[in-house]
């Protein structure tokens, strides 16, 4: 997946990386024109749209680390499975 490597930072109406490469630009709302976002790379849009799923996956992986009823091997399998689902969604693969 082609995306702008991070870390990302917010600067005014845009988000850039540490090399000042544009990640996306937010065009403000003006009369008769709603605001809209221009993404520098398609992968940047996918990452932004997947952020809620990635957050939930990280929470699930963290919780999986704390469950002691299951073997370490099984917990690692669950964490890998959760991570692979999110990565597959980001890369546009069947889940």
Q: Quick check: average pLDDT? A: 88
The count of strands amounts to 4
Q: Which term fits the overall shape?
A: elongated
Class by alpha and beta content:
alpha+beta
Q: How far is it from the N-terminal to the C-terminal residue, by CA?
A: 16 Å
Profile the largest sheet: 4 strands, antiparallel
Helix coverage percent: 40-55%
Strand content: 15-25%
The overall number of domains is: 1
Run of helices and strands:
EEEEHH
Number of helices: 2
Rg:
18 Å
What are the low-pLDDT stretches, counting only 5+ consecutive residues below 50?
none
**Lateral arrangement of strands in the main beta sheet:** 1-2-3-4
Notes on the structure:
The protein is of the alpha+beta class and 95 residues long. It has one domain (8-90). Helix content is 46%, strand content 19%. It is built from two helices and four strands. It has a four-stranded antiparallel sheet. A hairpin with an 8-residue loop joins strand 3 and strand 4. Helix 1 runs antiparallel to helix 2 (72-90). The chain is elongated, with a radius of gyration of 18 Å. The two termini are 16 Å apart. The relative contact order is 0.13.
């Amino acid at each position: 997946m082609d995306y702008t490597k991070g870390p990302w930072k917010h600067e005014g109406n845009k988000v850039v990386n540490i090399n000042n490469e544009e990640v996306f630009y937010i065009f403000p709302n003006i009369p008769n024109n709603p605001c809209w976002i221009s993404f520098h790379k398609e992968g940047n849009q996918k990452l932004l749209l997947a952020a809620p799923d990635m957050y939930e996956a990280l929470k699930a992986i963290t919780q999986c680390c704390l469950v002691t009823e299951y073997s370490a091997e099984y917990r690692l399998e669950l964490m890998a499975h959760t991570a692979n689902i999110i990565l597959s969604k980001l890369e546009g693969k069947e889940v």
